[in-house]
């Protein structure tokens, strides 16, 4: 074999190695945490208040779990699936309200942070909201809380699911205007 042919074969081998390296690097372009680790809230129960005028509001519980779920597109879409699966629409009417309060507005009786929504689902609330602590795994409660928070537009647009799997009268979550929760002292007692 002549030197010209050997040089050509060497170039081809280099190009093939380069293409293989690029192809392998492209396979690892996105990694999702599909089974996020959930840290327990150290046995803390969210304190409930009697909602009396002038009463001090309980301090919100901060957890490292919430941030991982509310900005995770997979967690929000799983929460959407669980919302339908557990028939949350039976009381909350696809987020617009019904027997239970609306989830798409800026009025949050027990707080609108993901930790407070998690506490409402896990511990229940007086006058209607049942507790789901021992009925649903904690990771699924966090996914539900992430989806409920997304219903009011409080989620990054990149994480919000753009469409549901069924026909819906509500706009996709990427089109819902953000509804930041109002402070607890501005919520009217009749809601």
Shape: elongated
Secondary-structure-based class equals mainly alpha
CATH level-1 class of the domain at 64-186? Mainly Alpha
CATH superfamily of the domain at 64-186: Cytochrome c-like domain
Mean pLDDT: 74
Q: Any idea what the radius of gyration is?
A: 24 Å
Helix content: 25-40%
Count of discrete alpha- or pi-helical segments spanning 4 or more residues: 6
Biggest β-sheet description: none
| Uncertain residue segments | 51-59
User: And the CATH topology of the domain at 64-186?
Assistant: Cytochrome Bc1 Complex, Chain D, domain 2
The total strand number stands at 0
Amino-to-carboxy terminus distance: 88 Å
Order of helices and strands: HHHHHH
Q: What is the CATH architecture term of the domain at 64-186?
A: Orthogonal Bundle
Strand content: under 5%
Structural notes for this entry:
This protein has 191 residues and is mainly alpha-helical. It has a domain at 64-186: Cytochrome c-like domain (Cytochrome Bc1 Complex, Chain D, domain 2, Orthogonal Bundle). 38% of the residues lie in helices and 0% in strands. It has six helices and no strands. The protein has helices spanning 3-27, 64-70, 73-85, 89-92, 114-123, 138-151. The longest helix has 25 residues, at 3-27.
Structural topology:
Elements: H1 3-27, H2 64-70, H3 73-85, H4 89-92, H5 114-123, H6 138-151
Helix pairs in contact: 2-6, 3-6, 5-6
């Amino acid at each position: 074999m002549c030197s010209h042919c050997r040089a050509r074969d060497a170039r081809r081998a280099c190009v093939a190695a380069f293409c293989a390296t690029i192809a392998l690097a492209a396979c690892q372009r996105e990694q999702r945490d599909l089974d996020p680790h959930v840290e327990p809230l150290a046995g803390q129960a969210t304190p409930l208040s009697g909602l009396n005028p002038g009463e001090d509001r309980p301090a919100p519980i901060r957890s490292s779990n919430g941030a991982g779920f509310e900005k995770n597109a997979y967690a929000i879409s799983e929460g959407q699936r669980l919302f339908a699966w557990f028939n949350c629409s039976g009381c909350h009417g696809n987020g617009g309200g019904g027997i239970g309060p609306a989830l798409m507005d800026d009025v949050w009786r027990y707080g609108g942070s993901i930790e407070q929504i998690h506490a409402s689902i896990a511990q229940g609330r007086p006058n209607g909201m049942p507790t789901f602590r021992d009925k649903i795994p904690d990771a699924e409660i966090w996914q539900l809380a992430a989806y409920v928070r997304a219903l009011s537009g409080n989620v990054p647009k990149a994480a919000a699911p753009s469409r549901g799997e069924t026909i819906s009268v509500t706009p996709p979550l990427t089109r819902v205007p953000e509804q930041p929760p109002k402070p607890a002292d501005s919520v009217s007692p009749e809601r």
